[in-house]
Amino acid sequence: NAGVTQTPKFQVLKTGQSMTLQCAQDMNHNSMYWYRQDPGMGLRLIYYSASEGTTDKGEVPNGYNVSRLNKREFSLRLESAAPSQTSVYFCASRKTFEKTSGQETQYFGPGTRLLVL
Amino acid sequence: GDSVTQMEGPVTLSEEAFLTINCTYTATGYPSLFWYVQYPGEGLQLLLKATKADDKGSNKGFEATYRKETTSFHLEKGSVQVSDSAVYFCALKSGGSYIPTFGRGTSLIVHP
């Protein structure tokens, strides 16, 4: 059971280049999330998907797009990378997307470390 | 809205010292509370959780008690090891929100 997987692990981009970060989970979870982690800022939610076919903006969506390709996969795209997008990106999943699902654990991938020059 | 406040780090301790990392929260209703740990170069993983008042979560020698009266969920360990060096995140999920709320994380550095 692989859990949540992310590719690539590391990436260096030049300003203006585009790329897609891939995420997949094999736990049959309905909800998936993309976060970025920066020093002193903790985790900030970029986008989330409550279920297959739906996506919504989080706290810091500008400069990003997402696709929930199917129940397993949730990708994050940077159309024109900027140095401010240098960060570590984490994908996460959770079984449901209900207000009453308080006890459910969120599962995280190992992260993608992105450097934009 | 929901919020989680953690003590700022880094917390630097010698091996076998006692650890406390403070966490307080504001939330709608009666949230579930979590501690996640992030080891260097890895993603977050669940360390322990508590789902109702006075519950104690425990794992790997770490403990935290859900204190409704003080809205706190402080993380403790009696004797830390070098291998406990990591970033610790307090989090909650309340009935008033669809999405978990995380604190900013507290870095723990344990010296031999």
Summary?
Chain A is mostly beta strands.
Question: Can you walk me through this structure?
Answer:
The complex is a heterodimer of chains A (117) and B (112). The model of chain A has no long low-confidence stretch (mean pLDDT 93). With 117 residues, chain A is mostly beta strands. Helix content of chain A is 0%, strand content 50%. Chain A is built from no helices and eleven strands. In chain A, the strands form two sheets. In chain A, strands 2, 4, 5, 6, 9, 10 and 11 form a seven-stranded mixed β-sheet that branches. Chain B has 112 residues and is mostly beta strands. Chain B is built from no helices and twelve strands. Chain B starts with a strand and ends with a strand. In chain B, 40% of the residues are buried. The model of chain B has no long low-confidence stretch (mean pLDDT 94). The chains are: A mainly beta (117), B mainly beta (112). The interface between A and B is medium-sized, with 27 and 26 residues.
Blueprint of the fold:
The complex is a heterodimer of chains A (117) and B (112).
Chain A: E1 4-7, E2 10-13, E3 19-25, E4 31-38, E5 42-49, E6 56-57, E7 64-68, E8 74-78, E9 87-94, E10 107-108, E11 112-116
Parallel strand pairs in A: 2-11
Antiparallel strand pairs in A: 1-3, 3-8, 4-5, 4-9, 5-6, 7-8, 9-10, 9-11
Chain B: E1 3-6, E2 11-14, E3 19-21, E4 23-26, E5 32-38, E6 44-50, E7 56-59, E8 62-65, E9 75-77, E10 86-93, E11 101-102, E12 106-111
Parallel strand pairs in B: 2-12
Antiparallel strand pairs in B: 1-4, 3-9, 5-6, 5-10, 7-8, 8-9, 10-11, 10-12
